[in-house]
């Protein structure tokens, strides 16, 4: 509210990080997830070292996030999810890889996602980037909505889905679990998760 443009100047980074950022954006461009931008908005890009090596590319969306009205989306309670699995005897867990990148940005919001790079490029995201204030809530709301028909045996917590089963109606726990996995995978294919 009251903010016209959200601009933070890009700061210099070591050559190794600049290359990692350029390579990252080239791969995202090829995947159709970003495009070059002429937006009046701009957030800087930088790197954080991953524990297992390599770089995590992040954006400093501080000004945009300060101007964003927070989403009022309930976050699932871990204790409720765990309680729902109490009677089950077989479990699987799935991680929705690059989860945020599976959600398309609304066309009118794309310019707000513009990010600069140390090499002088300005990119904007066509999919939801990490770092936006409401991204976790938006992603969680989307996954919860898409998977609601299987939530009795496959509750989700952000990008994690927990499948749990037990023997029912003469079917073994393994048979039930295979059935639950098939139903979940069919739903994920349908919604391109």
Automatic annotation (TrEMBL):
InterPro entries: DNA/RNA_pol_sf, Rev_trsase/Diguanyl_cyclase, RNA-dir_DNA_polymerase, RT_dom. It holds the Pfam family RVT_1. It comes from the Eukaryota. Residues 48-193 form the Reverse transcriptase domain. This is Reverse transcriptase domain-containing protein. It comes from Phytophthora rubi.
């Amino acid at each position: 509210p009251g903010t016209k443009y959200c601009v933070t100047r890009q700061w210099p980074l070591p050559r190794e990080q600049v290359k990692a950022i350029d390579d990252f954006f080239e791969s995202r461009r090829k995947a159709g997830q970003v495009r070059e931008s002429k937006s009046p908005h701009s957030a800087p890009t930088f790197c954080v070292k991953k524990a297992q090596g390599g770089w995590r590319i992040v954006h400093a969306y501080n000004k945009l996030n300060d101007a964003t009205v927070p989403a009022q989306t309930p976050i699932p309670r871990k204790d409720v999810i765990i309680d729902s699995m109490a009677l089950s005897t077989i479990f699987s867990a799935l991680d929705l890889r690059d989860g945020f990148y599976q959600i398309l940005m609304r066309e009118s919001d794309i310019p707000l996602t513009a990010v600069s790079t140390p090499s002088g490029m300005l990119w904007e995201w066509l999919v939801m980037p990490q770092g936006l204030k409401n991204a976790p809530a938006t992603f969680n709301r989307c996954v919860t909505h898409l998977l609601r028909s299987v939530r009795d045996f496959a509750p989700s917590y952000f990008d994690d889905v927990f499948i749990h089963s037990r023997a029912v109606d003469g079917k073994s726990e393994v048979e039930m679990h295979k059935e639950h996995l098939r139903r979940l995978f069919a739903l994920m294919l349908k919604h391109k998760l």
